[in-house]
């Protein structure tokens, strides 16, 4: 996610525009001007422009000129010069991941801008504070300061800087995958940047909107916007936006399996990132090369590049694509047959991609937007109040007369109003009582349905246990005794060779009958479930399916403590998973399937998915089948929810959430 700092430099676009082979000519021109200037604010501007040129081309030399400009700003008490020095140092500290010191400097810049009473400088300072909080991973604080910057720049009608701030907010929503909000802020960023003639705001808006469209699988539109961003980067000679655009272009090409240009683009991203000392760009380039070789089934090369990307991310504490790299490592392990490594990498990726963060951020941002709206309205109210106070000075006598008349009218209508309100309150109370009664009736009906379901399920489980015991101990014992008797008879009888063969076939059929009886008894009530618990029983069940060769079934479980799961619920959960797997075997025509059960606090999450032929979910709305109704009944009894995601030739994923 690319962010833009507002560095308070009025001529920053010009400075970057000279980041070309002729930049030294412009530097020499400024050096010559510096020799003839007196110590005033113009000299500060010239020194800082020189620092800007060095930062774009020889970053190590930039620090000297920034310090020199700051010393002169302090001597002259030149506020803008102080803020520019802070902004330049913050950018350097961001590249070195020294976020704590950068945060102190940006907060110092806020204090200076507030003291100077300069709204544009203050808005820029808020934006830069937000950037540092974002780098530190505190998205709530970042959004808070971005919204403060929006309030300032909207009041100032500064479209140029509004476009930049909206582009930064857009980047946040891209990172937490809120496509609706991202799309909304992308349009704001692009439109304000174009009105304010901000190439940088427009470029970052295009980049992040491309990312949203890629998530929505609108690859043609994403490719078009990325090419527009790349053109802007070339025009203003900004390597950052060139590399960002190429990364989006590569993502489209990899997603659509058009691999011919991927390797060339990745090398260009790497070259641009090295010249900028951009570790995140280097990591992205290696990651995309890893995907490129994975798609070409060169798993050794894919692993090499993924490992290099992971090393860069870990060393520099960069989290942006860390989860995706672990997913790639897991896929490489799976393709190489290393199931345990695949599971551990998948678990790492899942832990990084914490879904709860998105909900928390969305809720917090709604509060921020509400606060922003209130601040904006309060400003308008204050303006109107000021105008009304001026008008009131000339109309006070008229108002006094009008108030006396209004008071008289109110006195005449007060009794009628009180009577009407009393009648209305009585009607509301009656309606509320009726609503409560209807709600209580619905609750009783639901309780009755749950009790009926509980009785049916308990009866089914008890009958299964009884039948399984009778089959195993009764009929199983009889068949085993019969086999033993026949074996003794064979040893004590003399029979012809033909009869001996018939006898052996009969004994074989008897063995098959005993095995089939044991299988049926086990399916009705697995011994592993009773003796060892839910996790072991599911492991055995999935292992048997996998060994049968019907489907390649992977079983995963996390934090499943059998002792804390009641036996009746464990039995129902086992039946749910057994029914879903049997549906895959009967209907899905799948090659691979996954059973995953995870416990977190008092919630159990179950996922059963396959890569089979899928079906139209509309069929479930009209399904009268016993299997699907049994699933719904069991989930409802467990106070859970069930979600089915599928489509023709898209496989099927069933997700169940159960509260213990």
Question: What tags apply to this protein structure?
Answer:
660 residues; mainly alpha; Serine Threonine Protein Phosphatase 5, Tetratricopeptide repeat
Describe the structure.
By secondary structure, this protein is mainly alpha-helical. The protein has four domains: 1-156, Serine Threonine Protein Phosphatase 5, Tetratricopeptide repeat (Alpha Horseshoe), CATH 1.25.40.10; 157-258, Alpha Horseshoe (Serine Threonine Protein Phosphatase 5, Tetratricopeptide repeat); 269-352, Alpha Horseshoe (Serine Threonine Protein Phosphatase 5, Tetratricopeptide repeat); 529-659, 2-Layer Sandwich (Heat Shock Protein 90), CATH 3.30.565.10. It is 77% helix and 6% strand. It is built from 25 helices and five strands. The protein has helices spanning 12-17, 23-35, 41-57, 59-76, 79-95, 99-116, 119-135, 139-156, 159-175, 179-195, 199-215, 219-235, 239-255, 262-276, 279-295, 299-315, 322-335, 339-352, 355-492, 497-524, 527-531, 534-548, 567-588, 618-621, 626-637, and strands at residues 552-558, 592-600, 603-610, 640-646, 652-659. A five-stranded mixed β-sheet has the order 1-2-3-5-4, covered by helices on one side. A hairpin with a 2-residue loop joins strand 2 (592-600) and strand 3. Helix 9 (159-175) runs antiparallel to helix 10 and helix 14 (262-276) runs antiparallel to helix 15 (279-295). The longest helix is centred in the middle third of the chain and has 138 residues, at 355-492. The radius of gyration is 36 Å and the shape is flat. It starts with 11 loop residues before the first helix and ends with a strand. The model is unreliable at 6-21 and 355-368 (pLDDT under 50).
């Amino acid at each position: 996610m690319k962010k833009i700092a507002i560095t308070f430099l009025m001529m920053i676009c010009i400075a970057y525009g000279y980041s070309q082979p002729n930049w030294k000519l412009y530097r020499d021109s400024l050096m010559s001007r510096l020799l003839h200037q007196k110590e005033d604010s113009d000299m500060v501007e010239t020194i800082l422009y020189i620092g800007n040129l060095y930062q774009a081309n020889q970053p190590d030399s930039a620090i000297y000129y920034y310090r020199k400009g700051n010393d002169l700003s302090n001597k002259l008490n030149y506020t803008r010069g102080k803020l520019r020095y802070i902004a330049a140092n913050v950018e350097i500290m961001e590249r070195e991941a020294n976020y704590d010191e950068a945060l102190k400097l940006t907060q110092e810049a806020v204090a200076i801008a507030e003291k100077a009473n300069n709204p544009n400088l203050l808005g820029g300072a808020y934006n830069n504070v937000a950037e540092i909080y974002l780098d530190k991973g505190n998205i709530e604080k970042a959004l808070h300061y971005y919204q403060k910057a929006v309030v300032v720049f909207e009041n100032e009608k500064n479209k140029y800087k509004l476009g930049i701030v909206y582009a930064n907010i857009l980047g946040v929503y891209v990172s937490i995958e809120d496509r609706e909000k991202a799309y909304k802020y992308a349009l704001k960023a692009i439109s304000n940047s174009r009105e304010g003639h901000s190439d940088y705001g427009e470029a970052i808006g295009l980049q992040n909107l491309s990312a949203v469209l890629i998530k929505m699988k609108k690859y043609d539109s994403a490719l078009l916007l990325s090419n527009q961003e790349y053109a802007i980067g070339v025009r203003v000679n900004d390597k950052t936006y060139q590399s960002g655009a190429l990364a989006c272009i590569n993502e489209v090409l990899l997603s659509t399996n058009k691999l011919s240009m991927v390797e060339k683009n990745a090398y260009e991203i790497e070259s641009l990132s090295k010249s900028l000392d951009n570790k995140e760009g280097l990591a992205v380039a290696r990651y995309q090369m890893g995907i490129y070789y994975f798609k070409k089934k060169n798993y050794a090369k894919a692993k090499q590049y993924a490992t290099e990307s992971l090393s860069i991310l870990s060393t520099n504490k960069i989290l942006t694509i860390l989860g995706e790299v672990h997913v790639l490592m897991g896929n490489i392990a799976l393709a190489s047959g290393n199931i345990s490594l695949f599971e551990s990498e998948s678990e790492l990726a899942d832990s990084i991609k914490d879904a709860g963060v998105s909900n928390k951020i969305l809720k917090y941002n709604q509060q921020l937007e509400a606060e922003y709206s209130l601040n904006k309205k309060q400003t308008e109210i204050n303006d109107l109040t000021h105008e009304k106070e001026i008008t009131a000075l000339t109309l006070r006598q008229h108002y006094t007369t009008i108030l006396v008349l209004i008071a008289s009218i109110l006195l005449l209508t007060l009794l009628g109003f009180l009577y009407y309100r009393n009648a209305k309150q009585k009607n509301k109370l009656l309606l509320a009582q009726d609503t409560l009664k209807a709600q209580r009736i619905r609750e009783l009906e639901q309780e009755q349905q749950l009790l009926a379901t509980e009785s049916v399920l308990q009866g089914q489980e008890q009958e299964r246990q009884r039948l399984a015991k009778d089959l195993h101990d009764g009929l199983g014992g009889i068949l085993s005794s019969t086999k033993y008797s026949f074996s003794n008879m064979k040893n004590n009888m003399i029979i012809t060779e033909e009869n001996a063969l018939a006898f052996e076939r009969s004994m074989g059929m008897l063995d098959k009958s005993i095995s089939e009886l044991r299988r049926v008894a086990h399916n009705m009530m697995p011994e592993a479930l009773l003796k060892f618990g839910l996790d072991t029983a599911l492991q055995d069940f999935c292992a048997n399916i996998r060994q049968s060769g019907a489907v390649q079934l992977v079983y995963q479980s996390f934090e499943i403590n059998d002792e804390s799961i009641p036996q009746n619920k464990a039995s129902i959960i086992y039946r749910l998973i057994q029914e879903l797997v049997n549906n895959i075997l009967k209907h899905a025509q799948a090659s691979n399937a996954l059973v995953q059960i995870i416990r977190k606090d008092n919630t159990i999450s179950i996922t059963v998915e396959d890569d089979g032929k899928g079906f139209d979910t509309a069929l479930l709305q009209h399904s009268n089948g016993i299997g699907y109704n049994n699933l719904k009944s069991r989930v409802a009894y467990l106070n859970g929810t069930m979600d089915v995601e599928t489509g023709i030739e898209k496989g099927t994923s069933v997700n169940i959430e159960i509260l213990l």
